[in-house]
Design a protein that fits this description.
Elements (H helix, E strand, L loop, with lengths): L2 E3 L6 E3 L1 E4 L19 H14 L3 E3 L8 H13 L1 H6 L1 E6 L13 H15 L4 E6 L8 H14 L2 E7 L3 H14 L4 E7 L11 H8 L2 E5 L22 H4 L10 H16 L4 H10 L6 E4 L8 H8 L4 H10 L2
Helix pairs in contact: 2-4, 4-5, 9-10, 10-11
């Protein structure tokens, strides 16, 4: 699988990154800790992703209340040093580890959390470490100084930012430049055919400063995989029955029109909707890598399809116009 440099981090990642957010939970939501993808299926997914050529895993300290990191660590221990040395692990911090626990990007908390992440993952060093969300209660300089200390100490290779706006990123980059601190080398934000907000704001900033870009939510919670149909109930166990607040905005006729057009084009290419939606992302010169979070091994089938599809810039633009 093709790899690309992640900004100026000095780290290259495969174009597809395995998202482990549902291992033992549903993202960082404490209400779902202990639920989500069970351990045996998580191990099967990691095995299948490795066999597919994926060499980067994305997690966070709060995913599953620590279960995601722990299971990755156990998987790595089982696989041995050759796999451990070849895998790029990126983890994140911000959200509470349990209901009522502290959160944020304060200096002391970052230093505490990185140590617990290293222990769960069974690693001495994190290749990539990410601010999981912007912290309005902590000065950015404090956060960046904590990250800078970790980079200088060799515990972290490079740092990135997730769920940041262009304005928040620009401020962070300016602080890093003025204070001589490690900077955010990439941003990981929601981006898909249905979520295009970063095109007019974050993408230009990334180009200007040489930042990498990782797209999470590439299938918009299953909407771009054809899981939800016009005038039909949502499937049991789907994102729309667990955490619908992020996706309820798509339940309107014009979106269903675009999805039906996407499905028709996918059928013409002998692909699934999900495979074509991922291929559209792979065709973007602004997207370094895509974070894909399969709930079952079978969900990786669309990754194989996407890797086999090569869209021209004209074809990608045509697909994008369906959702404009």
């Amino acid at each position: 699988m093709e790899t690309r440099a992640l900004g100026r981090s000095g780290v290259a990642v495969t174009r597809l990154v395995l998202g482990c957010g549902d291992f033992g939970g549903v993202g960082s939501a404490p209400a779902f800790f202990g639920k989500g993808t069970p351990k045996n299926e998580a191990f099967r997914i990691m095995d299948a992703a490795w066999e597919l050529g994926i060499r980067a895993f994305d997690t966070a300290d709060a995913y599953g209340g620590g279960r995601s990191e722990t299971w990755i660590g156990e998987w790595l221990a089982k696989k041995g040093s050759a796999v451990r040395d070849a895998l790029v692990v990126q983890t994140k911090t911000f959200h509470p580890m349990q209901e009522g626990a502290d959160r944020g990007l304060g200096y002391a908390r970052i230093h505490r959390q990185v140590e617990t992440s290293l222990r769960r993952l069974g690693l001495e060093r994190l290749p990539l470490y990410v601010a999981h969300a912007f912290d309005p209660t902590t000065p950015q300089e404090e956060t960046l100084r904590a990250f800078d200390d970790l980079v200088r100490a060799g515990k972290v290779g490079a740092v990135g930012a997730s769920n940041f706006t262009a304005e928040q990123l620009a401020e962070a980059l300016e602080i890093s430049k003025l204070e001589g601190l490690a900077r955010y080398e990439w941003v990981q934000n929601s981006y898909s055919l249905l979520d295009r907000g970063d095109e007019e704001s974050v993408f230009p900033l990334c180009r200007e400063h040489g930042l990498g870009y990782q797209a999470f939510g590439p299938l918009a919670g299953g909407w771009l995989a054809g899981r939800y149909r016009r005038n039909e109930p949502y499937p049991p166990g789907s994102r729309m029955t667990k955490r619908p607040e992020f996706y309820v905005q798509y339940a309107r006729d014009e979106v269903f029109d675009a999805l039906e057009a996407l499905e028709a084009q996918a059928l013409e290419r002998g692909s699934s909707m999900a495979g074509l939606a991922l291929a559209w992302l792979l065709a973007s010169p602004d997207v370094t890598a895509i974070v894909i979070g399969p709930g079952r091994v079978e969900h990786l089938g669309c990754v194989r399809e996407a890797l086999e599809l090569e869209l021209s810039s004209e074809e990608a633009a045509s697909l994008g116009s369906l959702f404009a």
